[in-house]
Amino acid sequence: MTDSAFACRLPLSRLGAALALLLAGASAGAGVTDQDIANDAQTPGDVLSWGMGLQGQRYSPLTRINADTVKDLVPAWSFSYGGEKQRGQEAQPLIYNGKIFVTASYSRLFAVDAHTGAKLWQYDHRLPDGILPCCDVVNRGAALYDNLVIFSTLDAQLVALDQDTGKVVWKEKLDDYKEGYSNTAAPIIVKGKVITGVSGGEFGVVGRVDARDAKTGKLVWTRPVLEGYMGYMVKDGQKVENGVTGTPGTSWAGDMWKTGGGATWLGGYYDAETNLVFIGTGNPAPWNSHLRPGDNLYTASTLAIDPDTGTIKWHYQSTPNDSWDFDGVNEFVSFDLKKDGKVIKAGAKADRNGYFYVLDRTNGQLISASPFVTKQTWTSGIDPKTGRPIETGNRPGDPTKAADGKKGESVFAVPGFLGAKNWMPMAYNRDTGLFYVPANEWGMDIWNEPIAYKKGAAYLGAGFTIKPLYEDYIGALRAVDPATGKIVWEYKNPAPLWGGVLTTAGNLVFTGTPEGFLKAFDARTGKEVWKFQTGSGVVGCPVTWEMDGEQYIAVPSGWGGAVPLWGGEVAKRVNYLNQGGSLWVFKLHKA
Amino acid sequence: MKRTLLWGALCALAVTSAWGADLAQVREKGVLRVAVYKDFPPYSYAENGRYTGLDVELARALAERLGVALALEPITASDESVQDDLRNGVWKGHYLGWGGADVMLHVPVDPALQAEVRQVALFGPYYREHLAVARRTDALPTLDSLDAFRHTRVGVEFRTLGDQLLLSAAGGAYIPQVVHFRSATQACAAFRAGEVPALLAQRGEVEQCVGTARDGIAVAPLPAAQAERLGWDVGMAVKADDEALRGALAEALAGLRRDGTLAAVLARYHLGAELIASAGGG
């Protein structure tokens, strides 16, 4: 991009901000509309949706804070979540009508005055005994609609609160927490419907996408993601059959599909141009791939779903018959790919399995797949014709074969089970044309254990441990050119990266580190241009908006998530980090 | 798979915060807090609003021998490993506030497991568990090998040892006949309703399912080469440094063996005295 493009963006963004302020002023009390959400990426006066716009680019047209002025970025205020409930703070804040809505660990939600940082209200979801969250008690954010702020809870409920009072307006059960269901992802609102997935442990959770009326919480449609399950629509208050998912009996043996996993635990994004919701699915179950021959559709896939009917329009499976815990949940970000003089309606996904996929988002056809980490052992590449991985045979052994009572041979596989990229969302900058991908360099040793125990009973399990690949870093923020798959620059971080990314027209990329810093990088060169120590690890998602003529940045701070739950070599790199729970807001210092 | 070590790693890093109630504290409070699994018939489960089962009866008998009241702490099983349950049930408690009892029952007493979980002492085996098959003899007159399940449907609780053995045997040849259920109770209901002619589960689960209605039904150990070796001793766990409590419980259990209480408890669940674990383990 040229300087002139840079310069002419400035008045535009001011116009946008003025418009947004005008709208906010005029619509105070009117609430968030579908049109507001559709325009979210273009209105810098607010942040209304997960992904800062439903396409999920996490790009802001704001330029007041830029590579030159960022040195004057200072805290405006900080807000403590309080209590003993610290743990991982992975949320993306939302900004509307002078309020910030941010979710926190243990299914809490705070409304804070965006100007002063004063607490307006707090909602503490009452969690039942007996929930066993698999991977820390995080929450990734809320959705705004009308006068509601809607979020999911660890006990698998969807709760809609009044934005002004924090009182519950409606509450719906997504599923039974006693069966292992939970939900930690941010919902999205598409044309008046709140779209959610489900999360949970390996224990029998079946991945699913639901649409509910955002104003009432009533179910509109539900789409299981495993081949063989029936989808449903609600018509006149009755659940009616809406077609079976996939073609039963083609990619699973026996009745293995019934309990086949595929949790949709990261939620989805939406593209209005194609009218598709893009949502990823988790790994198949049980994790021992030898027990479930077949591709195991639609696990470890990206699904494109019609938000009006809940039908699957296309799918792309990144890891067929997954054996490495390569969930396919990662976000699929819509963007216009400029390649060979053409503009292609594309989407990109940085998968747990180490590949950066670019697909035609109208039909799911593979355009390119290139590694975004330095090493992977499970495949020698992705076949451009079939879109399937070319496997190397680096699969962990079958634990049931260790029934001779001996510890099996250890297999080293890369990426490790926490993935080349985990949940933390990447960003796409329309000016640089680059994706900014928070990656991690690690592998895993896996071996068969002679005997393990579960619920007091013998079990044939595997032991495994995650290992860094390099002495000096695990995390790497990488700028990936989607047209070539090349890595344009990288920033290496000692601890694993676990936070979301934000990029702006001010030629900046923001992301947090477990070491406690929020950092800013030059979007074109990767040069670190600013950092601030927040007091605890930053694993949340930064956002930016404009208010009263000033640009603000907000990010949650609070170390946690799945990484500190693991031992081995990685633990040694992170076990000195302290927990926390606060929201930091920054703006430019005025001399 | 990701979660097998999960939390376990956390515990390895953490220091036991509460040096829990040892024997003196148990006696002082007059209460023995016993962790048992939730929804785990016939060992520990709610019936008519009251907790009952083999483990629960044993817990009551142990508390009686110690001369204290019993407080049950039913815990939710981790879907990953017993190590998680031991942390939640005994040595640390769950971070949402439950668990952390004086003693936990239905814990495998196995030196390999003990070597992995140093925060607890595994001891006092009271029951020898193994896999068994109940079958309708008209559908399946004999059961000499697993090969019967090439052609005969068999119900099993998913993600259990029995499930793993069926799925992995003979290169996956039995998979089409394996009918999965979310619990042994549901598998049992399908067997009793005649939906599946065979049921594979833990011996205690199979015996309770069959109960006294044994006409046309046979129960036998799983006919697999490794099944015999895959039996395991079920016992209890206390915090590693609760030595006095451990001693008192071991002595109480020995008393229940001697006076026939243990055999009587097992018999109420259709389990013969030959299934009492030999003393000495742990």
Protein traits:
heterodimer, A: 591 residues, Methanol Dehydrogenase, Chain A, six-stranded antiparallel β-sheet, five-stranded mixed β-sheet, 3 helices, B: 282 residues, alpha/beta, D-Maltodextrin-Binding Protein, domain 2, elongated, Alcohol dehydrogenase (Cytochrome c) (chain A), heme binding (chain A), Quinoprotein_DH_CS (chain A), disulfide bond (chain A), PQQ_rpt_dom (chain A)
In short:
Chain A has 591 residues and is mainly β. In chain A, a hairpin with a 2-residue loop joins strand 33 and strand 34 (457-459).
Topology:
The complex is a heterodimer of chains A (591) and B (282).
Chain A: H1 3-26, H2 34-38, E1 59-60, E2 73-80, E3 94-96, E4 99-104, E5 108-113, E6 119-124, E7 143-145, E8 148-152, E9 157-162, E10 168-173, E11 181-182, E12 188-190, E13 193-196, E14 199-200, E15 208-213, E16 219-224, E17 230-235, E18 238-244, E19 268-271, E20 276-280, E21 301-305, E22 312-317, E23 333-339, E24 342-350, E25 355-360, E26 366-371, E27 379-382, E28 389-391, E29 411-413, E30 427-429, E31 434-440, E32 442-448, E33 452-454, E34 457-459, E35 462-468, E36 475-480, E37 487-493, E38 501-504, E39 508-512, E40 517-522, E41 528-533, E42 543-547, E43 550-557, H3 568-574, E44 582-588
Parallel strand pairs in A: 1-38
Antiparallel strand pairs in A: 2-44, 3-4, 4-5, 5-6, 7-8, 8-9, 9-10, 11-14, 12-13, 13-15, 15-16, 16-17, 17-18, 19-20, 20-21, 21-22, 23-24, 24-25, 25-26, 27-28, 29-32, 30-31, 31-36, 32-35, 33-34, 36-37, 38-39, 39-40, 40-41, 42-43, 43-44
Chain B: H1 8-13, H2 23-29, E1 31-37, E2 45-47, E3 50-52, H3 54-66, E4 69-75, H4 82-91, E5 103-108, H5 111-116, E6 120-129, E7 131-136, E8 154-157, H6 161-168, E9 178-181, H7 184-192, E10 198-202, H8 203-210, E11 217-221, E12 232-239, H9 243-258, H10 261-268
Parallel strand pairs in B: 1-4, 1-5, 8-9, 8-10
Antiparallel strand pairs in B: 2-3, 5-12, 6-12, 7-10, 7-11
Helix pairs in contact in B: 3-9, 3-10, 7-8
